[in-house]
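Incident log, structure service

09:12 report received: a user says their structure output differs between two submissions of the same chain.
09:20 pulled the input from the user's history:
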Amino acid sequence: MKGLFTTLLKLFLLITAVGALGFLCLGFIVSYHGAAPVKSDVIIVLGGDSGRRVQHGASLYKEGYGARVLLTGIDRRFYRKGHLNWRERRMKALGVPLNAVLIDTQSETTWEEAVNSSALMKKRGWRTALVVSDPPHMLRLQKTWETAFEGTGFTFVLTATKPEWWDPFIWWRNPISYRFVISEVKKNLFYAVMYY
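09:34 re-ran on a clean worker, output below:
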């Protein structure tokens, strides 16, 4: 009986330790696929932010990583051609010429951003994309874009912004990064069931 108790206790401690380690590593896991930028046909700045991604995309453009910038996730209900969206205005203010900026008003989800970007790349004859988002989104983006680009011959590199609230090793200590990581765990599970 004592041997069974000892075995169960060791098993419990092992499971607890593995679970704790897994929890602590979640920040690293969700952001692992972010990479250094490479020269690409198009810089795709994903929607859903307050300007950090636009800033990073503009910097990448000015550093020569791409000749075109695609802004995704712009709500078509409020977009009027000829009336600049705030993201277009920000790009212009950051020195990106408007003739280098394209707008995607069709995509409402990350999946749609990947699929619609792939279709635009095919239409324009582009082969490579540099995709801009925030660090906690990288795991889901990697699998989403891999799936959407499957069989196309297109390639992409994910590059992350550098928000002041992000540290993959102590993500749980900051309420913003904590919220993002927990949300991404849920979204990764949802995307695994729905799209992959």
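09:41 both user submissions now match this output. Likely a transient worker issue. Closing.
09:42 reviewer note: The domain at 33-162 is CATH 3.40.50.620 (Rossmann fold). The first strand starts at residue 42 and ends at 45.
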